[in-house]
Each structure stands twice: as structure tokens, then as C-alpha cells.
Q: What sequence folds into this?
């Protein structure tokens, strides 16, 4: 109970800060996440169990196992889970005891949050609205039936699709989402948005629906990964936080300085003094301990040493949205879509549009 | 599904019920049950409105007659299997012809058709198509009640389209071409699964000067021009009786690989329409997005890739407009493709690609599938082409798009009973709807949740600027269905995970207006007779409680 109370206080503190934040302080929302493709180089079931790791090392079952363990160790820690195709496979294998623990993490301590929560993170270019609505509904209804209204997803999270459609924005809006985040937009578009501080906007996605199709939209900064040097996954080789001054390689001061620099750099390109750090990437958190042990230290030391300039805390995209919303800023708007996607002047991702050509019709 | 159908039929009479089969290779004229037997077809129409569909099944021989669901003979035509089809199916079938007829199907329902050898005196015996090679150098044409397509005798390609109802004639050249993919080393970006990276700004021809061999198939239900560019590029241009749509069925592949040159094949329509650097593509099958060549609405376009950078997703349709003459050329696809308008009056769609380099974006593999026979993939698909004024084009592409998304589904039976026996035991026509939905309204979802609850989604399928179909429409739910009465309705959010009245979104300030807002009435419960109002592009989601009436 004591730890639960601490969580509530922390949330209150964040909310209070957000309302009054007209200061220069930067508020860094740490968003631990994993991006789990529902079938890519391997099949969805191979990804779930971690089979055929010679093709790609990835096993989603271990991600959910170890994250659930790690969240229980520190009530401040958060995690978001996105792809229900994997979560449902995992959930079906759990004991009632584990399910109770997970329910508590979702609905009581609110450390584990379902984000997007369709069956998969669908492509937006070559898909049909009927299929998108169906696959989103399957995932969202699973969350509702198993975790209730308090777990209802509030954020569209399409960090990997190669460009973004107006209809997808409109669908997310009509699903009741408060915001929509993604990573891949044209490199020139991104450069301009960075310099104009328009990485976040209100997307007026439907001329026909008007305001009902509007959705707050944010483009992520470091693609969907962590700032350079701060990947603590088993598959990364960045330096851990070495915080015993008696040992060789003590690096707290340097790591804190780099972190603060990354936060300042990112904040300089966004409209508010709240920013999100996406701490994770493809199939990350297979051993969640490595991530959380270092993130705990990072949060502790940055706040301790640089807390007057940068305040850092575990968060989620929906907590980030709430913080932004309370600032009561006025946002720019966007009415066209995010196609085509190019990541450099000669790499237009327009071949993928003719990818489902092999579909058969009866 | 077969069990489900048997269960459905078992409701009616005890005894043996038909077993239904599916044919996955109907599009290459392979379907063993229809090739060797008398057969019946139950055709299900999933859209909420009666529909006329042209059906086609492979058969062996030419002497058949088709009976409708009242066992009355109806007109049919036998069309010889094309050499393009034979090149695709290889050893997988022996059908000589396709038996074609036009079927009237009820909304959210189906009808049974009976196929039997023709009676010697039957006046409805299937019509034999006339097949001939057009005289050299003379232009030739096919036509139905709505359209006339004229082909060049010199090239064999489409030359003009004439819409008889709207009296619009446009010069249209349609050609199959290919982009040469960049390939190779670290200094260039190769084409791959993700990236389109053509070498140069001119596509290559498949045959010298794009000359095409042609033959004509004539009949009262179907007219075809069959075209061949090469041993790996065929096309059949079809007109069906009464339909104001020209169908271009391409058959491409295996794309030659011996030269190790990546090829990305396109179908290109070239017209004299003044399209003013502008074209339109759909967003996931719904609202149209305006595209302007070499331009981005919110930043300065840097012309680094004049072809690939002008390609946009075409999930279902693309069109150009000549604003001065009020003429629109629309192409609907039967699958998502990339497309563009690289010059005024032009439309192109990428239909197939075979590539020999990885594009360096993570797949670590070239897009070079060997396929079932080891020599590469063959792609067969259709483009549905509409030439008309703006309003007619809109109506036509929205209603056709609905049908292409939810195609009618044939279930084939070789149940050895006569039509009269079948009719005595089982229904031969059924509809789940008491009345057709208006053309603006699409039945998006009808899903059984439990014994008494269904998930229902109704959609207005026109945009606010698509006159004159942008009117607000109402649908009464209480007695909409034939087999169940709606007794309670709760409106849900689009995801069907929450009551609409429970959804409260954050408000965001913008220069223009707030991002709040719902278009639905926020009443938790609707009152009988449950009248739903739909405005353009709205989708309404309901949990309906039903009582069965049969």
C-alpha cells in the first residue's frame, strides 16, 4: 500500500507541475516500449516463442514475462504494450495468479498500459479501412473484456508504418483516441517541422467529418528508439550506469551530462517543455532487467544532479498527452496526409505500395 | 464454412443437404467441380443492396443451359479459355471455356443457379462466342449499350473510349511498360521490397514499339479484345452487357530474369485530358486525396526523384479530371497498388515487380519470388475504367468500389438432384434485408456477438463534396432484417469496445477550431424504431439486441 500511495503522489506531482509549467525546466517522459512486428522476417508464432532466432533474434513471450516481473519491483516503472496478437497469445498461457498480477499492474498501479492495442500495427498505405477497423476492434475489445474501461487505450501508436494516411488518423479519432504518434515521415518534412517546432500538430484528417476527424498528432524525435548512447537492451552495447565511485569506470556525471544534452537538444525542436524519450526498439525488453535497472539509476541521478534543469520520470504516451493538454497551448494544423515517405532524397518507399499484388480473389 | 452452410440448410428439411465447394483458382479457369459435372452455384452477395453480377465458371465443352433460382432458363454465353489463361494455369486444368451469365442477387443474400447440359430444343442454350482476328491495319472496336472502345489496327492498343450515355469521347492509349530498376552497389539506391528507384524518367516497352497481337471475342453478354505484348505480358479488355465500365484484366509474368535487370511493370493510360498536374487517390478506400505533381503542400519539393517521388498509394482508385470539359477518367483496382500521373492526361499503376537487389531497408532479400513453378510469379488482376462526367463517375466508382471490396462469393455444389427437387427441399433465394439500403449507405459490419446481440456498422459512402449523393440519409433499424427484429440499440464507438456516450476526448486548441467533437448523438440508448441518421463519410457502430422471427 505504501508503494501504491507513492505512485499516486508521483502522478499528482507530475500533473501539478504540468499545469503550472511556464518555467524553463524540461520534463522528460521516459516511455519504455517494445516494437514487436506481428510477422516480418519470421512468422508471428516464431516471433512469439523466439523460434528460429538465427533469422532474427526475437522472442516476445520473454518480453512480457520479464517486464511483468520487473514492473513489480518498482512501482514507478511503466511499460506500454501495443500488439495484441502477441499479448493474447501470452495471456492464454498464464496462470490465474499471473493474470491477477497483470490486472493489478494495468488497472490499479497503472504501470502497464495498452497503447494502440489493435491486433497489429497495420500498414497505412496499401490497406483497406474495413480491415483496419476490424483488426483494431479485435484488440480493443479484448482489452475491454479482460481489463475493463479503465484500461481503454487512448493513444494511436504507429511508430513503424512507412507513411501515414488521413483515413488512419480519422479511424483513430473515431476509436476515441486522444492522440496519434508515429516516427516515419518524409525527411524534408521532418527537417522543416524540427526547425519550425511543428513536430506536434492537430491533424484535420477528414474534410467530410470535420472536427470529429481531428486528432492530436506527434512525430517522434529519435525515430522510435532511445537517444544515442542510452539503449540498455541485451542487443545494444551502450555503457550501463556505473555508479560506485570506488569501482573503475564510474560514469554517472558523464552519463547525466549526455542525457541532459539530449533532452535539451530535443526540447529545442518541440513546442512545449515536455518531451518524450522512447526507451526501446524492435523486440526490446527480452531481458527487461537490463533496461529497468539502468533507467532507475538514470532517473535517480539526473533528477538528483540536474533536477533544477531537467526533470525525468517514467511515463506513458497518454500521460505525456495529458501533460501537454494541460498546458493549453494552441497547435498548428495539417490537412493533407504523410505520403509518400522518403528517408533520404533517393529512397522513396513507394515500391511497397505494389506489394499486395499477389493477393488472390475467388 | 461448409459446416455452417449445412447447418443453415438443415434448418429447412431433414435429409441429405448439398455439400458446397470453393474454387480458389477460378481466376485462371480451374475448378474441377464445374468442369466435369452438372452443377449448381449458390452466390452470396454481402452488400446491403440487390446487385447484378457477371458470373463465370470454367467448363468443358460448349453446350449448357443456365437456370435461375426459379428454374427458369436465362441467357448465357460460352467464352473460350484464352491463351493467356492457359499460360498461367499450365497443367492444372483442362476447361475449354468459361460459362458466363448475368446474375441478379438480392441484398445481403444469395441465389442458386442450376447448370445442366442444354436441351436440344432449348432456346436459352448458351451462346457460342465468335472469335476472330481483326483485319490488319483497320481500327476495330467492341461496344455495349454504354461504352464503345476503339483499338488501333496498327498497334493493337486502345485508341479511344466513347461513353454513349454522356456523349463523351476521349483519345486513350493504354499500354503495358516497365521501369528499369536501379541496381547494384553502395553508390545508388536499388529498388527493393520497399523502395521504388527507377533508372531514368522513361519506361521501357515490352514489345518492339509496343505492338500488340490481338483477337476479338464477340457475344451478347461479353465482348473481349485479347492482347499479347510478349510471352509474359497479356491483357483482356472486357465489356459486359449494360455495364458502363471497361475491365482491363492483365496477366503479367514470369518477368524475365535472365538479364538480371529488375523490372517494375506498369499499366499506363495516356489521354488528352487537361488534368493540370493534379490527380486524386483514395485513402484506404475512402476519402480522396488531392495530389499535385512535383509538389508538397507543406514544404518545398526538392526534385530528387521525379518518378518515385510522385508515386502515391492507390488502395482502391485513382482519377484525373479535365475541369474545363467536365470529364473524369477513373481507374479502380482490385488490390492496392502504387500509382501516379507523371504527365497531364496520364495515369499509371504499378502491377508487378521483380527485383534482384536488396534495398537496404532491413529485409536483406531481393524481391524475387520463384513461385510454384520456380520461374517467377505471375500476377493477374483487373483495372476497372470509368470515363464519364464528374457526378456519374462518382456514383459509379463508389458503388463499384463497394462491390470490389465485398465481392459476391460463389459456393459450388454437385448435389445430384434436379432443380425442382432442390426447390422442394431448400430455398433457392434468400435475403437478410427487408429492404435495400440506399446507394449512399454501406453495410460495413454485421457480426454475431452472442445469441441475441449483433455488432452492426453502417457507413455513408460518399464525401461531403460528392454531389448529389452527399445528402443526409436515414435508416430504420427496427425491421431492417428479415429474420430478426431489432428490439434494442446501443451506439458504440468505432472500435465497438465502448458505448459512444462513454467516450470523451481531450480538447486541443488550434488557430481554426478545436479538435473535440463527435458527430453522433451522444444518447446512450436509442428509441424504437431506431432511426439512424448518416452524414457523408460517417460510420455508425451499434450493438443491437435482436429477437428472431423465424
A:
Amino acid at each position: 500500500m505504501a508503494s501504491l500511495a507513492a505512485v499516486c503522489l508521483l502522478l499528482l506531482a507530475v500533473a501539478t507541475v504540468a499545469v503550472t509549467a511556464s518555467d524553463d525546466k524540461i520534463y522528460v517522459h521516459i516511455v519504455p516500449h517494445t516494437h514487436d512486428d506481428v510477422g516480418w522476417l519470421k512468422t508471428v508464432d516464431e516471433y512469439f516463442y523466439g523460434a528460429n532466432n538465427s533469422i532474427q533474434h526475437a522472442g516476445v513471450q520473454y518480453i512480457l514475462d520479464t517486464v511483468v516481473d520487473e514492473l513489480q519491483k518498482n512501482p514507478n516503472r511503466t511499460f506500454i504494450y501495443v500488439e495484441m496478437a502477441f499479448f493474447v497469445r501470452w495471456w492464454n498461457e498464464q496462470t490465474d495468479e499471473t493474470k491477477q498480477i497483470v490486472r493489478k499492474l494495468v488497472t490499479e498501479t497503472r504501470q502497464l498500459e495498452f497503447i494502440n492495442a489493435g491486433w497489429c500495427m497495420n500498414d497505412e498505405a496499401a490497406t483497406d479501412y474495413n480491415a483496419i477497423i476490424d483488426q483494431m476492434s479485435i484488440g480493443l475489445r479484448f482489452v475491454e473484456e479482460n481489463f475493463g474501461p479503465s484500461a481503454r487505450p487512448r493513444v494511436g501508436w504507429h511508430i513503424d508504418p512507412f507513411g501515414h494516411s488521413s483515413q488512419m488518423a480519422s479511424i483513430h479519432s473515431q476509436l476515441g483516441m486522444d492522440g496519434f504518434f508515429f516516427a516515419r515521415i518524409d525527411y524534408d518534412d521532418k527537417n522543416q517541422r524540427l526547425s519550425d517546432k511543428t513536430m506536434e500538430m492537430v491533424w484535420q484528417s477528414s474534410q467530410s467529418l470535420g472536427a470529429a476527424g481531428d486528432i492530436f498528432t506527434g512525430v517522434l524525435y529519435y525515430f522510435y528508439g532511445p537517444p544515442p548512447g542510452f539503449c540498455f537492451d541485451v542487443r545494444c552495447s551502450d555503457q550501463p550506469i556505473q555508479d560506485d565511485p570506488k569501482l573503475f569506470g564510474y560514469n554517472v556525471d558523464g552519463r547525466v551530462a549526455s542525457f541532459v544534452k539530449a533532452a535539451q537538444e530535443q526540447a529545442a525542436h518541440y513546442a512545449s517543455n515536455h518531451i518524450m524519450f522512447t526507451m526501446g526498439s524492435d523486440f526490446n525488453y527480452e531481458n527487461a532487467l537490463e533496461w529497468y535497472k539502468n533507467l532507475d539509476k538514470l532517473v535517480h541521478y539526473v533528477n538528483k544532479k540536474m533536477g533544477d534543469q531537467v526533470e525525468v520520470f517514467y511515463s506513458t504516451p497518454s500521460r505525456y498527452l495529458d501533460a501537454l493538454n494541460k498546458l493549453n497551448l494552441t497547435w498548428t494544423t495539417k490537412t493533407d496526409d504523410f505520403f509518400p515517405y522518403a528517408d533520404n532524397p533517393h529512397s522513396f518507399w513507394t515500391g511497397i505500395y505494389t506489394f499486395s499484388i499477389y493477393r488472390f480473389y475467388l | 464454412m461448409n459446416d455452417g452452410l449445412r447447418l443453415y440448410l438443415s434448418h429447412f428439411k431433414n435429409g441429405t443437404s448439398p455439400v458446397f465447394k470453393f474454387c480458389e483458382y477460378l481466376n485462371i479457369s480451374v475448378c474441377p467441380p464445374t468442369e466435369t459435372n452438372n452443377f449448381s452455384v449458390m452466390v452470396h452477395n454481402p452488400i446491403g443492396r440487390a446487385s447484378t453480377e457477371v458470373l463465370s465458371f470454367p467448363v468443358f465443352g460448349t453446350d449448357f443451359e443456365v437456370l435461375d433460382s426459379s428454374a427458369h432458363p436465362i441467357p448465357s454465353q460460352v467464352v473460350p479459355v484464352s491463351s493467356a489463361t492457359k499460360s498461367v494455369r499450365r497443367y492444372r486444368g483442362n476447361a475449354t471455356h468459361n460459362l458466363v451469365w448475368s446474375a441478379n442477387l438480392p441484398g445481403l443474400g444469395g441465389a442458386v443457379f442450376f447448370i445442366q447440359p442444354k436441351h436440344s430444343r432449348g432456346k436459352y442454350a448458351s451462346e457460342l462466342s465468335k472469335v476472330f482476328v481483326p483485319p490488319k491495319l483497320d481500327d476495330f472496336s467492341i461496344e455495349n449499350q454504354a461504352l464503345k472502345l476503339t483499338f488501333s489496327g496498327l498497334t493493337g492498343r486502345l485508341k479511344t473510349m466513347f461513353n454513349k450515355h454522356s456523349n463523351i469521347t476521349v483519345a486513350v492509349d493504354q499500354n503495358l511498360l516497365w521501369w528499369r530498376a536501379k541496381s547494384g552497389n553502395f553508390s545508388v539506391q536499388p529498388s527493393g521490397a520497399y523502395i521504388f528507384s527507377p533508372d531514368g524518367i522513361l519506361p521501357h516497352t515490352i514489345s518492339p514499339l509496343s505492338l500488340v497481337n490481338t483477337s476479338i471475342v464477340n457475344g451478347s453478354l461479353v465482348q473481349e479484345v485479347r492482347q499479347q505484348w510478349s510471352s509474359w505480358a497479356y491483357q483482356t479488355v472486357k465489356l459486359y452487357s449494360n455495364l458502363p465500365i471497361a475491365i482491363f484484366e492483365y496477366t503479367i509474368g514470369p518477368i524475365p530474369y535472365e538479364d538480371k535487370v529488375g523490372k517494375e511493370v506498369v499499366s499506363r493510360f495516356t489521354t488528352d485530358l487537361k488534368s493540370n498536374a493534379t490527380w486524386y487517390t483514395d485513402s484506404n478506400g475512402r476519402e480522396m486525396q488531392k495530389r499535385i505533381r512535383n509538389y508538397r503542400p507543406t514544404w518545398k519539393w526538392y526534385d530528387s526523384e521525379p518518378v518515385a517521388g510522385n508515386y502515391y498509394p492507390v488502395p482502391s482508385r485513382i482519377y484525373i479530371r479535365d475541369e474545363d470539359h467536365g470529364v473524369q477518367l477513373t481507374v479502380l483496382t482490385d488490390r492496392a497498388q502504387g500509382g501516379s500521373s507523371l504527365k497531364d492526361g496520364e495515369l499509371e499503376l504499378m502491377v508487378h515487380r521483380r527485383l534482384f537487389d536488396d534495398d537496404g531497408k532491413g529485409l536483406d532479400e531481393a524481391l524475387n519470388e520463384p513461385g510454384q513453378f520456380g520461374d517467377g510469379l505471375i500476377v493477374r488482376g483487373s483495372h476497372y475504367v470509368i470515363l464519364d462526367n464528374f457526378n456519374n463517375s462518382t456514383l459509379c466508382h463508389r458503388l463499384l468500389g463497394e462491390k470490389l471490396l465485398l465481392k459476391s462469393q460463389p459456393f459450388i455444389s454437385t448435389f445430384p438432384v434436379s432443380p425442382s427437387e432442390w426447390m422442394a427441399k431448400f430455398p433457392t433465394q434468400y435475403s437478410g434485408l427487408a429492404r435495400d439500403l440506399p446507394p449512399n449507405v454501406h453495410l460495413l459490419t454485421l457480426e454475431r456477438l452472442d445469441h441475441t446481440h449483433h455488432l452492426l456498422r453502417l457507413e455513408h459512402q460518399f464525401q461531403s463534396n460528392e454531389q448529389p449523393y452527399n445528402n443526409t440519409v436515414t435508416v430504420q433499424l427496427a425491421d431492417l432484417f428479415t429474420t430478426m427484429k431489432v428490439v434494442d440499440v446501443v451506439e458504440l464507438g468505432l472500435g465497438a469496445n465502448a458505448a459512444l456516450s462513454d467516450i470523451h476526448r481531450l480538447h486541443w486548441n488550434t488557430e481554426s477550431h478545436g479538435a473535440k467533437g463527435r458527430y453522433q448523438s451522444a444518447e446512450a440508448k436509442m428509441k424504437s424504431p431506431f432511426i439512424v441518421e448518416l452524414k457523408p463519410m460517417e460510420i455508425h457502430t451499434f450493438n443491437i439486441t435482436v429477437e428472431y422471427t423465424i
About this structure: Chain B touches chain A through 95 residues (CB under 8 Å).
